[in-house]
Amino acid sequence: MKSGWRVRARGTRGFTLIEVLVALSLAGIVLASLVPLLVASVHGVDQARRLTTASGLAQGKLEEIRNTAGVVAGGSDSVDATGRGETYTRTWTVGAGPTATCKTLTVAVAWNERGSHSVSLHSILEQ
Questions:
Q1: What is each CA distance from 55 to 22, 74, 78, 106, in whole angstroms?
Q2: CATH class of the structural domain 17-126
Q3: Residue 61's closest CA among 92, 85, 88?
Q4: Would you list the domain boundaries of the chain?
Q5: What is the C-alpha to C-alpha distance for residues 121 and 127, in angstroms, rounded to an integer?
Q6: How far is 8 from 20, CA to CA, in rounded Å?
Q7: What are the pLDDT digits (tens) for 44-74?
Q8: Would the pTM of this model clear 0.85, i.e. be above it?
Q9: Are 52 and 119 in contact (CB under 8 A)?
Q10: Type and span of the H or E element at 79
């Protein structure tokens, strides 16, 4: 008796359509569950980049003030260090130091990205 359907012989290797569909469904579920992890990792990298940029700006201002001769006063400025429109606000204050010939210097860099963030560096200046 011949029919239009081929009968699969026992012992032949291969996958049925249902097995392939189940495997693809499981793979899709696993990959979809990894999307939030990818998004969180991208946000973490962006936050680390901003923190590194802010630390560099604070260090730069600290070195600039250290290399300035004469009396140093507190102040602030805004900087777009990346050229992407990301504004960082630097504020520096000079106060009395541990001895009469020293002053304390604090440089703080703040930025707003998904909330308010800041980095502060402290140093002692010998005069």
A1: 50, 18, 14, 13
A2: alpha beta
A3: 92
A4: 17-126
A5: 19
A6: 17
A7: 999 999 999 999 999 999 999 888 877 788 8
A8: no
A9: no
A10: strand 75-79
